Amino acid sequence: MTRTNAARRSSKPAVRPKARATAPARDVFRLSRSPSHLLRRAEQFAAELFARSDLRDGVTLRQTVLLAAIAEDEGASQSDLVRTTGVDRSTLAEMMARMERKGLIARAAAADDGRAKSVRLTTDGRRRLNEALPAIRAVDRALLFALPAARRAAFESILAEIAETADRQHAEQAPAPMKKAPHRIARKARRPAKKAARVRRQSRIA
User: Fold this and answer.
1) For the chain, domain boundaries
2) Is-contact 69 61, C-beta < 8 A?
3) pTM of the entire structure?
């Protein structure tokens, strides 16, 4: 190779390899960053702490919550307790049936609505609640002590705001009470008059 050819080759710009196209970053779902999953984990943690308490008779954290809700609002309806506890209606109905069979609660027709049931604690139910309260207070302390002291009040406030938002949404989605049609109301009002007329006719015949 001559010097001239070598000089020409050395003066040519170096060819750089083509850069590979970078793949778009994937939006990976991580449970460790999911608020709903983390709330569920916290609930499991609380239930485990409660289960390790010295309580007997197999009382659960959810049953204690229901007993506390009834004690806080004696005579509440099942719909009221659904809103207070956050337990869905079918699960709550099953829980209440079991607790009624155990003699922990008593149900009766509500004074203002015969179709609804008002719920109250029995003597055994109130005793069971009083026995469980130290355990549930210990669970609450354990949850708060998992956080630095400076963040505990904010944690409680955030949970309360989420619960209030849920209450508002439930209230907005609740179906409006059905109103009786005017003709049905008038028909019902005429029934006593018709009955009285029938009684008068029968008395004349007699």
Assistant:
1) 37-174
2) no
3) 0.65
